[in-house]
Structure to design on (383 residues):
């Protein structure tokens, strides 16, 4: 019998999302060996495709930060058709949304989302998360058949098979900086570029914009204006710019560098997959979760909120944080982040990038879990 799947993609604009979709399909093709796949964007109207969807063996949700408060109906509108979907729904490499900032213990699903997540997991062997924080969130809601496999973007079959170790550059000739999306971090991002130029005056430094450099239907006019201003300043300082939006081939810029430093989780993940030294600033909790999964250090790009240090319960902090955001806005940039990051980079250069010594073995362990995830679902689907 020919195997067929419906793959749910979140690739709209962001380079990282295109990489997630591509690597998810690569993993599915290797481990489940479908004859064909129906690929749909997560925000599409699934109703016209219901007959085709129900003719496949399963719906596989392909990665991304899908575990949002409004998982049901918001991130995944098609779940409102659950009573008409007759095949299992299998989340692959999903992560939490990254907020409340650095405090996953305060994250809450809507009641409808909790019901949907529990219903999904009753119909499958296991789901897969991209980090341990997400697995713990699901466990808090009583969902136990979950395997932390890491993000699909962490895995390159050739590098795993060859047991490749991380590159140790003898000289730093080329550096890639993945740029922050949030305007409140643009000033900090410029300081990072200038600090790298000062520390490595003979090196090329390229600024990579994963979500593009202007407004469109996926980027607001306000955010687009901030991006244009940042791009103008970066160019005036003599740095090369790469607009990586919509273009998966842009990821290859990270193949020819001595190290990456920046804010984008999937620049970090891709570099790990290629065994390129990489340093991550946590723009939000997604970076924190990635660092924890890889057991690599990272730097908080933003400040804690005032209420984080209060001696009150997690539930009370959840509601106080909402009020603080309304009154004070989002937490601003961590003023020590760039000096901390530069110290980390210099320390690793001086010590032969020793922090990456055991990372390939950690990737192997995650890859074994990924295999277990696919094997358990294959058995449930076809035994």
């Amino acid at each position: 019998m020919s195997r067929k799947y419906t793959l749910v993609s979140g690739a709209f604009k962001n380079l990282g999302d295109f990489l997630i979709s591509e690597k998810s399909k690569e993993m599915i093709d290797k481990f489940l060996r479908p004859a064909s796949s129906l690929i749909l964007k997560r925000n599409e109207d699934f109703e016209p495709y219901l007959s085709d969807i129900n003719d496949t063996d399963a719906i596989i949700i392909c990665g991304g930060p899908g575990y949002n408060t409004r998982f049901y109906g918001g991130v995944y509108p098609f779940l409102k058709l659950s009573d008409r979907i007759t095949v299992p729904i299998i989340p692959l490499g999903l992560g939490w949304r990254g907020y409340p900032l650095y405090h996953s213990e305060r994250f809450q699903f809507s009641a409808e989302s909790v019901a949907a997540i529990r219903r999904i997991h009753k119909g499958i062997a296991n789901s897969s998360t991209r980090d341990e924080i997400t697995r713990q969130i699901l466990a808090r809601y009583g969902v136990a058949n979950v395997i932390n496999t890491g993000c699909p973007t962490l895995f390159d079959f050739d590098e795993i098979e060859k047991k490749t170790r991380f590159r140790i550059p003898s000289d730093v000739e080329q550096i890639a900086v993945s740029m922050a999306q949030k305007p409140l971090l643009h000033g900090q991002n410029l300081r990072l570029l200038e600090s790298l130029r000062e520390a490595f005056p003979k090196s090329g430094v390229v600024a990579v914009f994963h979500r593009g450099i202007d407004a469109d239907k996926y980027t607001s006019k306000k955010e687009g204006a901030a991006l244009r201003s940042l791009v103008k300043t970066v160019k005036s300082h003599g740095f090369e710019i790469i607009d990586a939006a919509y273009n998966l081939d842009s990821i290859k810029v990270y193949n020819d560098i001595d190290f990456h430093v920046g804010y984008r989780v999937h620049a970090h993940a891709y570099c790990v997959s290629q065994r390129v030294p990489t340093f991550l600033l946590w723009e939000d909790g997604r970076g924190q979760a990635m660092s924890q999964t890889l057991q690599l250090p990272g730097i908080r790009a933003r400040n804690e909120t005032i209420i984080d240090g209060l001696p009150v319960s997690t539930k009370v902090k959840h509601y106080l944080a909402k009020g603080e955001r309304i009154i004070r806005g989002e937490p601003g940039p961590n003023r020590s982040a760039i000096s901390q990051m530069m110290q980390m980079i210099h320390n690793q250069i001086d010590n032969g990038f020793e922090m990456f010594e055991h990372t390939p073995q950690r990737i192997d362990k995650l890859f074994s879990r990924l295999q277990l995830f696919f094997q358990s679902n294959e058995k449930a689907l076809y035994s």
